[in-house]
Amino acid sequence: MNSSSRRRDAQNRSGVSSETDIDRNDVYNIEGSPNQYQAPSLGPRSVWSILGQWWPEFFAFLAACGLLAAIFGVLEKNKDQRSNYWTISGLSLNSFVALLSAILRALVLLVVEEVISQQKWLWQLRRRPVGQLNSIDEASKSLMGSFLLPFRLRTWFSNMYIGCLIMILSLAIGPFSQQAVGTKTCEIWQNGVKAQVPYTTRGPEYFRFGAGLFDIEPGYAGRMASACMDPSTQNSTFLVEGCSTGNCTFIPSQQEDYALSTLGVCSKCMDTTKYLQKNRDNSSGGYDIVSIPNIINMTGSYQITGLESRISSLSYAQSDFDDLQRALFPASILNYTVVGTTSAGCSYANESSIITGCTPTAPLDFTWKAANRDPPMNVFSSGCTFYMCMRHHSVKVDRGVFQEQLVSSSPGFHMEPEGSLDHVYFWKDKCKVGDETIDMTKARTVSYKDGIIDVRLNDEDTVGRTFPNTTDCLESVSWPSWRGLQKSMQVLNSTCRYPSQATLGSVKGRREQIQCDDYYLSGLLANGLGSASTVSSTFQAVANAVTNRMRQTAVLSNFTGDAGSPTYEKSQESQTQGGFVQGGYVYGNVVEYGVCTEFHGEWLIFPLLLLVATALFLLHTVIRSVLRRHQEPLWKSSLLPALYASPESQLQAGYHSLQQLEEKADQDSVQLVKTGDYKWELIKDAEHSEQELAPMAAPVDMGQEYTSYKR
């Protein structure tokens, strides 16, 4: 007799009709069993009733999607905001994201657990070991069970593996979500606070001290001396006001590369070393003389000349003038020729050691022996021009350091006649002609004739533009102001010498023993390593110092602009002893550097993909439960089917739905006891009498149990 017949006989003897029993060998096999018998229908079950049993999983999945969207939204909202911008009862943004991601993972696991649990019942629709049912149940509840499930089932693929993979990968939801939160250093503008930097459109204030004689206040001479003495120490930080954080930006208007235009002084130097000549002066002891004929003579007699800085014409170098050099001479304040000695190009171990020799400064083919004594010196020369110009600067304050850089400049020019011969005129940065706005930041005036100004707009402009002398694109400096500035800038007209008995064998000796008529002129020697390049840098520092003084005094004298204006605000023109000063401020944003939130959205792609996989896993099982609702049970993670459908129990056909099983379970009372066979069983009170229970079913005395165990 086969097992099916024996089971039917046992059921008949127990009084249970075999007509309601479904033989296990005849169960409908959804995995493709060869059995041809169609399983009986589980009865009428509507689609909505099936879907209704999945609503907790749908709700959990939608809540998980909402949490991921919340993480994305919160991080996007806090992007580029200060890290302390987000506050929720003291909870940091990272902690908040960690909390949401933890709940998100819990919801994903809830969905996957129920789907895997449903799959375990479908797995057992075909005859399989009961241990596999337990393995699948463990997989739905633990990561270890999910990891071991493929090894326990020993089948190459099952839908449940997808759920197990999701459970394992869900461990990364938290780390990936928190990785989306980053920090960076950011600029935060201070609302309602403005930094300001001055500019001027007029020359310095002047005063008259005689017929045709003018001068400016002594502060200019002090600034020039300081800049000449040590150009490296010069900065314009004192010009900035209101930059409380030490970080301010001055945004150029109209996408230009400059933020400020101001009248000032510029300088341009050219290397004139090639014009130096060496001659023997037999009338003064046969010493060598280095000179630029008719300009400067450096002698080596009683006092050895170390440097000459002389106001002079630069006509001796006119063959080297370019178009820019020619254009700036009409606005020239003073021209200087500097000739000096230097140890640059000489050989020595250190600054205190004796110089062993010198390679002549290019393009010269000679060195100079001061007073005919070894070791030799090199010589250099530079021709420089100070001229008035319209300067255009980029401006910023970074970590308390004011950084102002000259972007471009436009030299001034004279117009004549009509009494304006000595006035100097300058082009504004923009000139509006009709509907056209012309950039004049690099303009240089070629000529003026019959009321027409011929201008080249930049170095590449070969055609140029013409403007009438009545145009409103011009600023001007009066001739008394220009003459006063010219007088003040003569402070660099001086000489430096070495004593006749000076020890000039080392760089240090040459640097320390130089004596200048004006102490600050020693800066042109650049610590004994002077050159045409260092002279150019020093003269540029002097020009910057004069410009900054002009800007500072302009706003101190008569600035009345609106502090809230984001652009130029010109003051009312005032007169001080005949001098006209006009200036204003350019305004910038005060910036505070802080730690801001950075959003790396790419890290949320992984949780998103995991949600997509969860959705597909859920939908596959839900659709199957709908399509096969008459052939397959829908029990999910419930324990009741295992109790009521066990081999020793009888699951009635009327109890196929989970709701019916739950109602049945509410009515039945069981107890876990040991039977007379000393086996643990869940029994109903009505099924067994007290005599059938083993004595151990009574409350156990643990002390006696322990004593018995020891024996």
UniProtKB/TrEMBL annotation:
Basic and acidic residues: compositionally biased ranges: 1-11
Please name the InterPro entries in this protein's record: DUF3176
Q: Which Pfam families match?
A: DUF3176 (PF11374)
Start and end residues of each stretch annotated as Disordered:
1-20
Q: Which residues cross the membrane?
A: 54-75, 95-116, 156-176, 603-627
Q: Which PANTHER family match?
A: DUF3176 DOMAIN-CONTAINING PROTEIN (PTHR35394)
Q: Is Transmembrane helix found in the keyword set?
A: yes
Entry protein name? Uncharacterized protein
Keywords on this record?
Membrane, Transmembrane, Transmembrane helix
